[in-house]
Amino acid sequence: MPETSVARFYDELADDYDRIYADWDASVRLQGSALDALIGQEGAAVLDCSCGIGTQAIGLALHGHRVTGTDLSPRAAARAAREAARRNLTLRTAAADMRRLPFPDGRFDAVVCADNSLPHLLTEGDVVAALAEMRRVLRPGGLLLVSTRPYDELLRDRPVSTRPQVHGDADRDGDGERTVTFQLWHWHDDGERYDLEHFQLHPADGQWRAQVRRTTYWALGQDRLTGLATDAGFAAPTWRTPRETGFFQPLLVARSGA
């Protein structure tokens, strides 16, 4: 999928991304705490190379880490910086492709690529290129944290939709901050890649206004992604479950080589 289409998807979603959550601030704190426990050191230099509007980056900054955020979407990265500033946090952000990170070698103690961002890359070559860049900017022994959807389960069933989620409150006329979000998945013939239609419905003047955004993912199973991380030079890649970590998605945890 052309990188511009992924950037457009998140540019269009940036203003409303927090409405995906029942309580975005609570999710920021919860996810930040889970990742902080895995990093296991104070004041780490952390790169969030798919920072979006800052869900994980802000959560880590709240724990005292020195966080830099990059994202393919300029609009999302700019919002992440604004949201951090509103909370009196320092978060440097920039628009960047994770396959071409604009940092010198060995710059960071940890690299985070969360919230199913890596599977926007649709070929093994692109995934290995991105992982190799993450390894390059890590110091020797630095920590990699990648989260994806639980694709081993999803590949068994190949769901065609997600359940609608309703967040927020409506006023007496039916308007207000209530948002309905759901997704439709259209699987490719290869059985691994799927086109996603992301629907958000907002009430306005007594009617529902629908926004539809489209993008594509690769349903990367855990063994396959583990192998690609090894190909990119990471040592001892292992998977940690949400039950183990408190993070909402499975996490691939690995170390850069010496």
How would you concisely characterize the structure shown here?
The protein is of the alpha/beta class and 258 residues long. The protein is 32% helix and 31% strand. The protein folds into two domains: 3-150 and 220-256, Vaccinia Virus protein VP39 (Rossmann fold), CATH 3.40.50; 153-218.
Protein model, in words:
The chain is an alpha/beta fold and 258 residues long. The protein has two domains: 3-150 and 220-256, Vaccinia Virus protein VP39 (Rossmann fold, 3-Layer(aba) Sandwich); 153-218. Helix content is 32%, strand content 31%. The protein is built from eight helices and eleven strands. It has a seven-stranded mixed β-sheet, with helices on both faces. Helix 2 (24-39) packs across helix 3 (55-62). The longest helix is centred in the N-terminal third of the chain and has 16 residues, at 24-39. It starts with a helix and ends with a strand.
Oligomer: single chain
Strand residues, percent: 25-35%
Note poorly predicted spans.
170-175
Please summarize the sheet with the most strands.
7 strands, mixed
Instruction: Quickly count the domains.
Output: 2
Protein name: Class I SAM-dependent methyltransferase
GO biological process, one term: methylation
Domain Methyltransferase: 46-142
Pfam family, one: Methyltransf_25
